[in-house]
Specification:
Belongs to the strictosidine synthase family. It comes from Streptomyces bungoensis. This is Strictosidine synthase. Keywords: Glycoprotein, Phosphoprotein. With about 325 residues, the chain is mostly beta strands. The chain has one domain: Neuraminidase. It is built from 3 helices and 27 strands. A 5-stranded mixed sheet has the order 1-24-23-22-21, with no helix packed on it. A hairpin with a 6-residue loop joins β9 (about 80-85) and β10 (about 90-95). α1 packs antiparallel against α3 (about 240-250). The chain is globular and about 55 Å long.
Length: about 325
C-alpha cells in the first residue's frame, strides 16, 4: 500500500549534494557533500538548532557511506575509490584505488560484514559521476559488485554486467546481499552462503529507480531511496539497438537536467515484500538518493539538493 511521504523541514549544509545518509548511534546522521566534506549532522528534529560538523575531507567526491563497528567510516569516493575515514581525527586512507590495474572510478556504495570483508559497488566503468545520466541512457551494463577481503588486499570482482550498480545491504542473517540496479529499476540478490553461494537472481522489481539502500544494524527492513519514478520512454530506449542508445547518451550528457518533483522511498523485508512505500508529488525537495531512520524521523539525502530533508516516519500523515 502506498502512503503519503510527509515532509517536515530541510536542514541546510553549506554545500550541495548529500548523496548518502546513514544514521549514527547518537541519533545524528552522517553524509558527504560535493566539495569532499564528510559531515555529522545533529539536532535534525529542529531546523533552527540543527548543526553540521565537518569530520573529514576526502579530497574527492564522497558517495555511499558505511559506519563500522569500531567507529571508522567506509566512504565510496567517485574519484578516489574505496576509503576509510577516521571521524575522530579526519584521517583518510585509500583501501582500494584500482581493480586489476584499472583505476577504481565511480565507486558507489559499500557494506562491511561481521567477518571483516567489505562488499562494494561500481556504478559504471564507462561514465564518470558527472555524466551519470549517460550510463542510464545507454544502459551499458558495466556496473560491478566487488569484495575486499578481511585485512585488505586486492579487490575481486564478484558480479559484472549490472545496470548501474548502486546501493547495497545485507540480509538480516548475513546469507545474501541486496544490490540496487538503478538502470533496471530492480533489486538483485547475491547469495553469500548455502547451495547458491556466488550466484545472483532478481529480488524485487520496483516502481522507480533505486539508489542507496540502508538497513539499521539493530534490525528492521531494507530502506530504498527511489531517485526517480519509472519512465516508460526510457524503458523503450533500453530495448533499442546499442547504436541508438549510445546516440541518446551523447545527447543526454549535454542536455540541461532538472529532476522531477515526484519522490519516493520504500522499505522491503528479506523476502522482497514491500513493508512501506511512501511517495510525494510536487515535492520541492528533488532526486532523493538516500534515506535512513534517525531520531524517529526519515531523513532524505539527494545528489541534487543543498541539504537534507526531514520527514515524518512511516504511519504519519
Amino acid at each position: 500500500m502506498t502512503t503519503r511521504l510527509v515532509p517536515l523541514h530541510c536542514v541546510g549544509l553549506g554545500g550541495r549534494g548529500p548523496e548518502d545518509v546513514v544514521a549514527d548511534p547518537g541519533g545524528g546522521v552522517l553524509t558527504g557533500t560535493a566539495d569532499g566534506r564528510i559531515l555529522r549532522v545533529r539536532g535534525l528534529a529542529d531546523p533552527d538548532t540543527a548543526r553540521a560538523e565537518t569530520l573529514a575531507d576526502t579530497g574527492g567526491r564522497p558517495l555511499g557511506l558505511e559506519l563500522l563497528p569500531d567507529g571508522g567510516l567506509l566512504v565510496c569516493d567517485a574519484e578516489r575509490g574505496l576509503l576509510r575515514v577516521e571521524p575522530s581525527g579526519g584521517a583518510v586512507r585509500v583501501l582500494a584505488g584500482s581493480v586489476a590495474g584499472e583505476p577504481l572510478r565511480f565507486c558507489s556504495n559499500a557494506v562491511a560484514l561481521d567477518d571483516g570483508s567489505v562488499y562494494f559497488t561500481v556504478s559504471s566503468r564507462r561514465y564518470p559521476l558527472a555524466q551519470w545520466i549517460g550510463d542510464i541512457a545507454e544502459h551499458t551494463g558495466t556496473g560491478r559488485l566487488l569484495r575486499l577481503p578481511p585485512g585488505g588486499g586486492a579487490p575481486e570482482v564478484l558480479l559484472d554486467g549490472l545496470q548501474f550498480a548502486n546501493g547495497i545491504a545485507p540480509s538480516a542473517d548475513g546469507g545474501f546481499l541486496v544490490i540496487a540496479e538503478t538502470g533496471a529499476c530492480r533489486l538483485t540478490r547475491y547469495h553469500l552462503t548455502g547451495p547458491r553461494a556466488g550466484r545472483s537472481e532478481p529480488f524485487a522489481a520496483l516502481p522507480g529507480m533505486p539508489d542507496n539502500l540502508w538497513r539499521d544494524r539493530a534490525g528492521g527492513p531494507i530502506w530504498v531511496a527511489l531517485a526517480a519514478p519509472r519512465i516508460p520512454p526510457l524503458d523503450l530506449l533500453h530495448r533499442a539497438p546499442a547504436a541508438l542508445r549510445r546516440a541518446a547518451a551523447r545527447v543526454a550528457v549535454r542536455a540541461p537536467f532538472r529532476p522531477g518533483g515526484t519522490i519516493g522511498v520504500m522499505a522491503l523485508d528479506d523476502r522482497g515484500r514491500t513493508v512501506h512505500h511512501l511517495t510525494r508529488r510536487g515535492s520541492g525537495y528533488r532526486m532523493v538518493t538516500s534515506v535512513c531512520a534517525a531520531d524517529g524521523h526519515l531523513v532524505l539525502g539527494s545528489l541534487w539538493e543543498p541539504g537534507l530533508a526531514v520527514c515524518a516516519g512511516p504511519g504519519a500523515g
